[in-house]
Amino acid sequence: MTNTPDTRPPAPGTASASGVSRRPDTSGSLRAIARPRHSRTRAALAVAAGRATGVLSRRLRLGGGTSLPGLVALRIDPGLPAYLGAQLRQGSIVVTGTNGKTTTSGLVTEVLRAAGHRVWRNREGSNLMRGVATSLLIRARPDGKLRGGGDASAVFEVDEAAFPAVVAALQPRAIVITNLFRDQLDRYGEVDTVAEKWRLALSKLPPTTTLILNADDPAVAALADSDREAPVVYYGVEEAPIVTAGREPGDCAEVIDTRTCARCHAVLEFSQRFYSHIGHWSCPSCGYRRPDPLVRARGIHPDALAGTVFQLETPAGVTEARVELPGLYNVYNALAAAAVGVTVGAETPRIREAIARFRPAFGRAERIAVGDKTVQLLLAKNPTGLNEVLRALGMMEGRHHLLLALSDKAADGEDVSWIWDADYERVPGIAAYVTTTGTRAYDLALRLKYTGQPPQHIEPDFGRALTHALEHTPSGSTLYIVPTYTAMLAIRGELAHRGYTPQYWEQQDE
Amino acid sequence: MNDTTPTAPVIRLAHLYPDQLNVYGDRGNIITLTQRCQWRGITLRVFPLDVGDAVDPDAYDLFFIGGGQDKEQGEVARDMRDVKAANVRAAIDAGTPLLAVCGGYQLLCHYYRDAEGEELPGIGLFDAWTIHKGKQVARCIGNVALSWEGATLVGFENHGGRTYLGERATPLGRVLAGHGNNSEDKTEGVIYKNAYGTYLHGSLLPKNPHLADRIIALALAHARGESAPAALTPLPDDLEWQAHNVMLRRLGLPTTDRPTPAALAR
Predict the structure, then answer these.
(1) CATH code where residue A183 lies
(2) Which 182-201 residues of chain A touch chain B by CB within 8 A?
(3) Which residues form the domain of A244?
(4) Residue A172, Cβ neighbours under 10 Å: how many?
């Protein structure tokens, strides 16, 4: 490759993927207009200050150092992410959405590696602009240039609210949007508000950015519905098993977050609805309907304890794929990564191997051996995420030992009313023993009481709750821990303290 | 009088706009009412009333209306005014109980003036009005506690509009912690006859079983054609009060014992 960063070509492979339309490439001129001249001295200074901060915060054990360097660097040079991002020869891939960001980013990373890319990724818990800045500056030299001539792809998991600013700065090669559900209404606002901000952000991007969208989420699919003639790759599920375990007929109807047509606001109809508003939707009024996905799954079924097998269909062929994660929601995450693979021209067998090789980390179905028992962490921080975890548990044989953890710190959302929108009614049908913990352990216990079956034990303290739940898990069995975000950090810290897993910031980054 | 006599009791609950107004855990209020009735051998039947559905003022013993997204409010407000207002008002004036939360509460007041100064007319059941003072003014978000009839109510509030009560309106409670109606006058919510409006969700009723039971008692009396709230069999509400007290403690307020029926009698 001989391209200088400022004349990055369109992504190889995009144009060859069948069903992908694109406008003639005008990226060079657009980029020249969009990017003001940037001071290299200032960028170098910002990189130096950020790196020094990182060293200092690790020495002083301020914890992680995942976003502090970026914060400091942004103070000196707010244009740093754009300046460094433009040096990435393979461009960047941004992943956003309510659920599945971290897992999808991990899967995308594996797929890009399988396609022969060197891949850089932002670290866990650093999905705001400062985290993106940190991720880039730790790979920059003191002169403000990326290491190795920037010959890498960067995969950035980005917070829904930070998304507009981050994509404006990075002008990514591809953007993956997984889904849009109600989540932390006190922080993000309502679903429609989020969609509108995304739409506006996307409308300002050059046509060199490929959109990779979930066809089965009407709010996400409609994001391509604008004047912007950028390539769009849709992915979706053609058919999925219906899981009834733990659900009584006549239960309160599941809450649906997007019920109306993005074009004409009529109420949507579903020929298949897999969960919440995810499915095969169409508008009876204006005819707008789920676009036909280029990357598809069917024949989905659980495999052994924690894996899911499905038939993966891409324009290049059909293959039996396996992802080491439970639940339909993780099939969607794998499809999103496969769509990225198609976009960069990866061969289907390589995509299949990458998806099979992926191992979950940091609370997303991560499995940890604790003596002769296993602990599996299944993060769930909003109604749909929780419903999907319970559905995945319902797909597995037998009754399960559960530690359910609810906290209301800022990163969890201080409003816990969402638990009443989630289908905990499934719990009595799938649980053998339930402990609740977290700052809102009693709220969660009360939620369970109103399903007709209160938990066996309530213990707000994470350490004591973990001890109790493990004691009540038989040898050879798995304790499933379903925490909100900060509860997951606390429980993982507790496990690490007992010597069972490394602290996340000590894990190898590359 | 025991609540299982003289006839097998059935409470008919009209749930207004369940598809549009459901964003803040309002389902928890329905679940709580349903279970607390079931535990006492009372049947609670939920009738969804959607956009376009007419309201028979004599067909229900209780109304519930929750909060929704902004996009849905216009359509719902129009339907409320054009299709349902007269009969809902007739039912409330005749003593039918109602619980309205957040957006639903605002719809039942005189009007909602949004951040741009546009007025969305309500149905004026409550003598109150709501003003959004512009996007630069912080929303009222956070945990909230009230004093209510010698006891406390706890919940979570999240509203941009400030609601002000007219001379004929009685507040539901007095703010002990949090914002309440407008973050100025310490009032929260409103009561008109047996209709209750409030910003509290969380959900509201699970952690406030005394309010849930007040509403059930009024609805049961309505179902039986009686005027005084029905006497209800007490339930073992230890978990409800523990969750309630966790929040009072968090807000630096004295915790509460289970309120006695006498303390709650009007």
Answers:
(1) 3.40.1190.10
(2) 182, 185-186, 190-193
(3) 91-124+147-357
(4) 25
